[in-house]
Design brief:
Strands 3-2-1-4-5-7-6 form a seven-stranded mixed β-sheet, sandwiched between helices. It is built from ten helices and seven strands. The N and C termini lie far apart (42 Å). It is of the alpha/beta class. Helix 7 links the parallel strand 2 and strand 3. The longest helix has 30 residues. Helix 1 packs antiparallel against helix 2 and helix 2 packs across helix 4. Helices cover 47% and strands 14% of the residues.
């Protein structure tokens, strides 16, 4: 086990690396290998059994400095994951390969993502935070034939994502949009809605979606609590009159876990 001060210093070091590498992004893949190495190292850090005790001690003895550090490193890591997806898309489109362990981790998480609420060819899936390398839409559409709509606030991510889909899944029922949930016809029709773990306002959006969705919709919320909250936005309480947590999928060796919600009046 790392001592608490060593643990905190490690997080400071990661914050510095992420902040520096985020500033280096210039639309090329120049720093992609360096960023991939740091993200892989950080993924191992937040899933390491040996770090859980240090995290627990820090959580039991919280300080304003540590809480601010956690928020800052989470934001920086999320920003760098978005950049890493851009690097991966750029490499794919230029004929290079990219095999960072982080992406293998995410892809393996997708396998069990829906718990008992499986997607079929008749499903309509909305992904909030689709990113530049839309792995989830590609995997779902390829394996099930379901229609998938991905949205992202980053215009560059949408542009790159569309090119990736064209390269890897031409003809698949995938649509990527730089739009808000309230402006999408599929929001009312969606059978499954997935939130990326690095969407900071996902629980605010979940609350908003209550009046915009049908009664049978299943919401798949990627999140990270405790040590994993260094990399992902954690689970939050929901309005019990609107949503009910009906299932969790815990993946100790993976960077995020999954919470599944249904509307309260139909969840029981």
């Amino acid at each position: 086990m790392k001592k608490p001060e060593q643990f905190q210093e490690c997080i400071h070091d990661f914050l510095g690396k992420f902040s520096g590498l985020a500033k280096c992004y210039d639309g090329t893949t120049q720093h992609s290998d360096e960023l991939a190495a740091v993200i892989d190292e950080y993924s191992a850090f937040v899933t390491a059994e040996g770090n859980k005790e240090a995290w627990a001690w820090m959580a039991q003895h919280p300080t304003a400095e540590f809480q601010e550090l956690v928020e800052n490193v989470r934001q920086a890591a999320s920003r760098c994951v978005a950049i890493m997806e851009k690097y991966r898309a750029l490499k794919l489109l230029s004929g290079q390969e990219e095999g960072a362990d982080y992406f293998k981790n995410i892809e393996s998480c997708i396998e069990q993502e829906f718990g008992s609420f499986q997607v079929s060819a008749d499903s309509k899936v909305l992904l909030v935070g689709s990113g530049s390398y839309p792995m989830t839409p590609l995997l779902i559409a390829k394996r099930t034939g379901a229609m998938v709509v991905g949205i992202d606030i980053d215009g560059e991510a949408i542009e790159l994502g569309q090119k990736v889909v064209e390269a890897l899944g031409s003809g698949l029922p995938i649509q990527l949009e730089q739009k808000f949930v309230e402006h999408l016809p599929v929001t009312r029709e969606a059978t499954h809605i997935i939130f990326s773990s690095t969407v900071s306002n996902k629980y605010e959006l979940l609350d908003q979606l209550y009046s915009l969705t049908n009664d049978q919709v299943v919401v798949v919320m990627r999140y990270g609590d405790h040590l994993k909250s260094l990399f992902n936005y954690p689970m939050q309480e929901v309005d019990s009159r609107k949503w009910r947590l009906v299932e969790t999928v815990l993946r100790p060796e993976h960077v995020f876990d999954i919470a599944l919600y249904k509307k309260a009046e139909v969840a029981s």
